[in-house]
Amino acid sequence: MKAKKLMALALAAVMTFSVTACGKGQDTTQTASQESGTQEAGTEAEEMKGSTEGKLTVAIWDSNQQPGIQEILDDWSAQSGIEAETQVITWNEYWTLLEAGASGGSLPDVFWMHSNQSQRYMENGLLLDLTDKIAASDKIDLNNYYEDIVGLYESEGKQYAIPKDIDTIALWYNKTMFDEAGVEYPNADWTWEDFYEAAKKLTKEDGSQWGYAINTGNNQDSYYNMIYDYGGYVISEDKKTSGYDDPRTIEAMQFVERMLREGLCPDLQTISENGCDVLFQSGKVAMITQGSWMVAGFRDNEYTHDNCDVAVLPMGADGTRVSIYNGLGWAAAANGKNTEAAWSLIEYLGSKEAQLKQAELGVTMSAYKGTSDAWVNSVDCFDLKGHLDMLDATLVIRPYSRNTNVWEDMATETFKSAWTGEMSMEEACKQIAESMNTALAEE
Amino acid sequence: MMSMATQKKRKMTPREKSEFFWGWLFILPTVIGLLILNIIPIFQTIWQSFFKTGDFGKGNIFIGMANYQKLMQDKAVWQALWNTVKYAIVEVPFSIVIALVLAVFLNRKMRGRSAYRTIFFLPMVAAPAAIAMVWRWLYNSEFGLLNHLIGRKVNWISDPNLAIYSIAVIGIWSIIGYNMVLFLAGLQEVPRDYYEAAAIDGASGIHQFFHITVPLISPTIFFVAVTRVIGAFQVFDLIYMVMDKTNPALAKTQSLVYLFYRYSFTEGNKGYGSAIVVLLLAVIMCITVFQMTAQKKWVHYN
Fold it and tell me: Per-residue pLDDT averaged across A425-436, rounded?
């Protein structure tokens, strides 16, 4: 008897649920058509949505940049009378959801594109073709942006995104720790060997402070720079072969290996549990190499605001200083409901006015040439020339291929055994090269 | 069977017709839901596992058993299966035993009984992602509360030999409340006279527990065991939220579903991801069939 009662109850519950669900659905559509601005009830933060009538959704992955970006979007709304709202989805989920949206035909109206993924999205016709629109526009001239970043979002002569920003990697350091250890602040003459010596002096035996924390989760702001400084490479020009087995690449990676073995870096366990930026922000490490996209985060953190500053990256033994750089693009969905509005927004975001504002607000360095001084002056607690001067170094675009994630993830996975010491760095590099060549052949 | 067949041949009375109609109407929402959300996707997944899937679900190429051949040689898959088994071996028995003991205690008349029941059930109401984030900080080796309390540095979630058990502890903690409620429902069914009779015969509390309580609620235990094993084999969110991609213990912790997620969604190889899920489906089916056969030995329905 009990079982029957339970069943009845469950059924009743299902019925009521479906009834209320229907009711709710009707409600939201009604309010949506009446007043497009104020419907929040049905909004689910976890989901990427296409536009509701008259409102554009703008998907990004960096919460540090969100306030500034929203401010720029509001400026556009004031001009165009169309509302636009940012949605922040963390990096990992971003691509999962974007891919699901692309397969299901419901992408956000406007979103960030990244070189790791752009090729696939462009080739499959998922991004709005901007070529003719740019030609007709009086606001956008592609010559105003850094060339390589424009090139990232071009496929078969067509342009699919307007450059948003440019990023460089620089050396962030903790002034207080340097003062305490009596070490001179990093300067433009430093080589990686000087960096190593300093890290040694800044490491405390009791494990309460380390000289350097390598970001094992992001190659662009860590070991890629060293690889190119040492004269190695990650992927060949034609994107067919891996450079991980190049002797100079291995040499650079062995430099990192040495720092880990000697305990100048926290072990992989500590880094992966906390993340190197958290360790830096909580005063556990003296130096990290980080991208310019972190400036807003470090500015808003009390500890880094008061204690830290930034300098150019050290150089290789022969004086090569490389900055692995990259830049995001603003793209729109090809099948969006309101591509006209989406283009108008992208056009605004690419305009000098908006790019300058992005720099002034300290969101990121802008892709528009000549706006970087505004960015340097946007923050008074750090000397951002460290990041800016990296633009004068040898610029190498972040290595990518058609399906970058596959071999990047594999490398991250394989390097783990090298970081922990189960495998020698040389062996790990050779193994990665082999798998990467297989992966590239399948692309 | 016979009687049903003869019944069918007979013409339906209007009442039976109406019952038939309403009966189907009532289960229709569930049936539609199951079909659209579960059954059709199962077959689509199996179908997809024979393809090398193209970008964004377009341009799939039929490759026969190639995904399965790759799967057989993929050490990561077998490691993930072993991780999943380890997780289930820890999570299922502990979550059942602890929940059963709690249910027996909370079935007696005592002060604040419903308050305790609510407290134990609370983790069930919280979002798994939120739970995982809280535990991640409790476990943190540098700043975590746990290490602070014991005064030693233990890498709870980044030591490859330990991490899977740390995750299982979170799993147990989040599920005991739910199991407990099911057991409480089962315990309500046990007539009080048995305990009175046993007490007169001089049986201790522990004796009563093993010889009256356990056999009489064995159907509930069986139900919980079957659903928990299935649930444990599908573990994903805890691992995904707690383990960072660069965590050195990840290879010894990732479950089959985690691996499926990685291949299907981060690497865009949906065909291979589907093959992994089909393997998981087969494993769960085998275990459930085994449980169904074994229950005859220990479950008492009357």
Answer: 94
